[in-house]
Amino acid sequence: MPATDTQKNRNNIRVICRFRPQNGKEKKAGGADCVNYGEDDHSVAISGKGFGATMKMFTFDRVFNASSTQADVFETAAAPVVDEVFKGYNGTIFAYGQTSAGKTHTMQGPDLDDFHNRGLIPRIIDSVFTHLEEADASLEFSIKVSYVEIYMEKIRDLLDVSKANLPIHEDRTRGIFIGGVTEIHVGSPEEIVNVMKLGARNRIVASTNMNADSSRSHALFIVTLTQVHSESGSRKDSRLYLVDLAGSEKVGKTGAAGQTLEEAKMINKSLAALGNVINALTDRKTNHVPYRDSKLTRVLQESLGGNSLTTLIVCCSSSSFNAPETVSTLRFGERAKMIENKAKVNQERSVAEYKALLKAAHDEIARLKGK
Ligand code: ADP
Ligand code: MG
Q1: Do residues 23 and 320 lie in contact, with contact meaning Cβ atoms separated by under 8 Å?
Q2: How far apart are CA 13 and CA 15, in angstroms?
Q3: For the Kinesin motor domain, which residue ranges apply (predicted)?
Q4: Is 264 within any annotated ligand binding site?
Q5: Whose CA is nearest to atom 18 of ligand 1?
Q6: The complex's ipTM?
Q7: The whole model's pTM is what?
């Protein structure tokens, strides 16, 4: 994706910030709008009671104000990622922020049947199929989707509820992947939306059965794109992770009922580990990055300082009522801006291509010898 002016290079994690309007509850609680937008679409300052006369200033690759549309966010945050996935790169988009800051609204949309307000995932899917229609006829494609949830350090398959604790594996060709996860081959945008609906329903059912709150789990929608050149046989595999993270607020504040301290710690483990991984990646003094400390960071290892083009969307409320959480969310985003990934095209050459390359090299040598 093209580097934006505040992004040091295209391998850095792009950080985009989105505010939602104040809701009725916040207004009732005496909240005022605490966001001061810069004129350049990149900077924002938060004012609030706790900060005295000073305002906290932040800059990002892009700041979206509370009246931005789903289409605006898609164009900036996701359209360039889809282009890169078709070139053979891995991509990741994840949404971070406190509960009710707009993560699900941004990633999925308020309602999968509300076409106008569709979030990033349905729009990305449409864009993938548009790319397919416009692609070179000699390319063959396959698209697979998986949908999982990480809750209490267990990976649950949202497309097959009987798989409640999936393992993470790693091998040389596939990189890091979730072992035994359901992968559904899809041939149309409608099929994918149906898969999303099934996953979303299972997510609600599972959280109700366990008496848990779905805002405490991470949802990962995974699209795998394979492109095979029909003549040469060369192949590119790319994976796109679309992640709706658990709420970043402290468990204590919302006071999940009946929860033991151990449970509370476990729930936050993946998110705390994400913070630690980001700190380790941005702190030049540390060599050890604790990816293995949680399921989330292990699955997303390639997206954090590895082989992926990654975009983080930090979601925030505009209300002074939530200003301290907003500042903490924006600080997380600022830190993530400094992570550098090492993205490369996931291409394998076919035997025919290697032979052709070798022959070209031999011919060139012969030509030079002949001279
Ligand atoms: P989260 O997933 O972060 O917990 P949600 O996405 O569920 O939060 O958002 C909470 C509520 O606020 C939902 O009713 C959602 O539709 C609304 N909302 C979130 N972001 C926006 C926005 N940018 N514009 C309008 N409404 C929004
Ligand atoms: Mg949500």
Answers
A1: no
A2: 6
A3: 12-339
A4: no
A5: 102
A6: 0.99
A7: 0.89
